[in-house]
Amino acid sequence: MKTKYIILISLILIPSAGCERISQYDQTVVAPAAVIQLATGYKFTEGPVEDRHGNLYFTDIPNNKILIYSGPGDVSTYTDKSGGANGLGFDHDGSLLVCQGSRRQIISIDDDKNVTIVADKYNGKKLNSPNDLWLDPKGGIYFTDPRYGRRDNLDQDGEHVYYITPNRKKVIRVIDDMVRPNGIIGTPDGKRLYVGDHGSNITLSYRIKRDGTLTGKKLFATQGSDGMAMDQKGNVYLTSDRVNIYNIKGVLIDSIDVPERPSNVTFGGPDNKTLFITARTSLYSIRMANAGVARQKRDVPEIPGYHLRWADEFDGDDIDYSNWTHEVGDNWHNNELQAYTNRDENSHVANGKLVIVARNELYHNKAFTSARMRTKNKQDFTFGRVEARIRLPAGGGIWPAFWMMPSDDTYGKWAASGEIDIVEAKDTPTAIHANLHFGGPHPNNTSAGSTPYSDGTDFSLAYHTYAIEWEPTQIRWYCDGKNYKTEKKWWTGSKTDNGSFPAPFDQDFHVLLNVAIGGTYVNCTKPECITAKFPQRMYIDYVRVYQKE
């Protein structure tokens, strides 16, 4: 539950300290506006970052809190067990990224406040105290790892800067010659990184190489920085005893005086022209002439030999109905127990994800509701690589699926025209399943056999990338890049009809996403045997379709 605070808002008029510099370089950076105190009464504020809905998250390190500023007089507590949270960010999937200084790790927190450790070690040794981070367009994370305070429990050989690869499987040390790195930010094209060295009181710039390592070190400014921001003109905002603004050549062009010593800065607001400033006991803001860099969208990676045919990254505020249609109703095969609806309560887009929500509620004489969506007659295709990054739901009787059906019954009713199950799971998903359905119309159908795959974990605890590579003579299944199933034999009609290959998988198919409750697949056809806790959510980060060049 959010704890509400009553906030006193005061206007503090601060004269611009850099008018002559602005005139000299013919730039207008700070709008003719006042510094505004938005909230106060904290011990040491840090880590400001705005979410997609305009809420500003920030930390109060000594009080072990992450707070949310949602508007005048509205500050709530996100958590009071933050692990010494310092710098914050938002991942491309909308999860909150947190530098936990006390716990010496970086974590990710999803919408349900499930926590995943992103990084806590380098070369098998605990990190110092992750301080600040920047997410690159590929989904990799650069972070600084200094140590302030006690030094008797350091495992690393110094205070360095690291890069977490986009697949989150490797931590690379990218800077090893700083005294005490702190603030960090990169350009939105992912080509340049700025890092403040508090220990040497300088800020350096680097070129980012394709593998995430750095080259081309240059002195950018003769001051360090606790936090950083960047505007759309490439100006870099550094904090010291005030907020100093440098152009892309490293020339100081303006400064902003703040009643308390600033620690960090970020852009936000409806037009992205409000600079939010954390400063010791308070949160401040000031209007700027330039907007901040837009919140980064992830790069859709290139795959050798393929081009992107279609994708939905779910970056908007609503479901894109040029791609998707809801299938609604309460009379489904397999003795399922849910009614599928097109209500927002069962499917919506939030924080860069499509969310399908299964609920325990009476609806159209069914005990449960959920959603089933498809791209039929909107995004249909033959052959290619089809992938989605999904976090599966869990619980007794839950049946999520990412699958494909033919857009026309070219070879007859199900399953003569085929079905491709990219991934489906049941109950608590310690294993996922893949299958092909083909042959004659039911009941003369057959399948390749449901192939289970397990990596020893619960697939509902994290996002995984599920994919097929569909070619005329074979179909390959992947989980997080591992090929765990390949099929090369199928037919339509009778098994003796050898001339039918590669039918039925030689025609347009479309994508489906759904969460079923109950049914013969999960061996539960009555509401009484459903043991899952509701609501259950399936999060879809993206769906992408690639085709061969």
Describe this structure in words.
- This protein has one helix and 46 strands.
- The radius of gyration is 26 Å and the shape is elongated.
- It is an all-beta fold and about 550 residues long.
- Helix content is about 0%, strand content about 45%.
- The chain has two domains: about 5-285, Neuraminidase (6 Propeller); about 305-549, Jelly Rolls, CATH 2.60.120.200.
- The two termini are about 50 Å apart.
- The strands form nine sheets. Strands 29, 31, 32, 33, 34, 36, 42, 43, 44 and 46 form a ten-stranded mixed β-sheet that branches. Strands 30, 35, 37, 38, 39, 40, 41 and 45 form an eight-stranded antiparallel β-sheet that branches.
- Mean pLDDT is about 90; it is low at about 1-25.
- Strand 8 (about 85-90) and strand 9 (about 95-100) form a beta hairpin.
